[in-house]
Design a protein that fits this description.
about 80% helix; flat
């Protein structure tokens, strides 16, 4: 069986961390040294990514609700005929 590109890429990844865990480590660094501008900047950038994700999730939810409403209206019209 020939490996797929996904299995090949997965075999090359040693470790992947999630943003919340990465942020937590830098947040701890800021707690230990409130003057650490590098750690403060990194936490701020990760917070910015979280804000973008939240906006994207809300936009996706809005689109899904619009589609659901359209499907419901279509179904009602079909059923009433």
């Amino acid at each position: 069986m020939r490996p797929t590109i996904i299995t090949w890429v997965a075999s090359k990844i040693g470790h992947a961390a999630c943003w919340p865990h990465a942020r937590h480590k830098f947040f701890e660094a800021v707690e230990l040294n409130p003057e650490d501008r590098t750690a403060i900047g990194i936490v701020s950038r990760i917070d910015g990514l979280f804000a973008i994700d939240q906006k994207l999730e809300l936009a996706i939810l809005a689109i899904a609700l619009q589609n659901l409403s359209k499907q419901r209206d279509y179904f009602r019209r079909e059923q009433s005929e």
